Amino acid sequence: MVSAVAVGDSPEPPYVILDEDDRVLEVGPRAPAIFESLRGRRVHEGFPETEALYGPHYERARRTGDAVEFAQYSNGHVTLIKAVPVERRRLIVSWELIGFVDVMTLEALQASLAAALGVLTEKEEAVRRERVRSSLSVIAGTG
């Protein structure tokens, strides 16, 4: 079985491991119980709306061999998803809930969108800093 230890920092984010057809092979300990009920089945059977939203990102990860990270809105939640390709076109898919979109009032909607955007901006800045740090390490010959 594939280890998901390298997916994120401690504590480990919720994750599932998908095969080349997006069937659930393994369910991480922090993943919601619905994923356990999908073991051996396509993840999109439990979440039909995600196939069109997530599928292209999963395929890009498999095609390029690079981790793909993307933000997605679905069912009132804004989630940061990370798909990491591993052997035999499998993916370790982990996620972090970064916000809820509150549509009760215009003010609540604006505030919840601003909060989600703030988290995304922080994440983007951290990725940018890591890329610069990595590039500088290569230039300095330490990476």
Could you describe the 3D structure shown?
There is one protein chain. The chain is of the alpha+beta class. It has 2 domains: 1-100, 2-Layer Sandwich (Beta-Lactamase), CATH 3.30.450; 101-143. Helix content is 41%, strand content 25%. It is built from 4 helices and 5 strands, in the order ββαααβββα. The protein has helices at residues 33-37, 43-46, 50-64, 106-140, and strands at 15-18, 24-27, 68-74, 77-86, 90-100. A 5-stranded antiparallel sheet has the order 2-1-5-4-3. The longest helix has 35 residues, at 106-140. It is flat. It starts with 14 loop residues before the first strand and ends with a helix. The model is unreliable at 1-10 (pLDDT under 50).
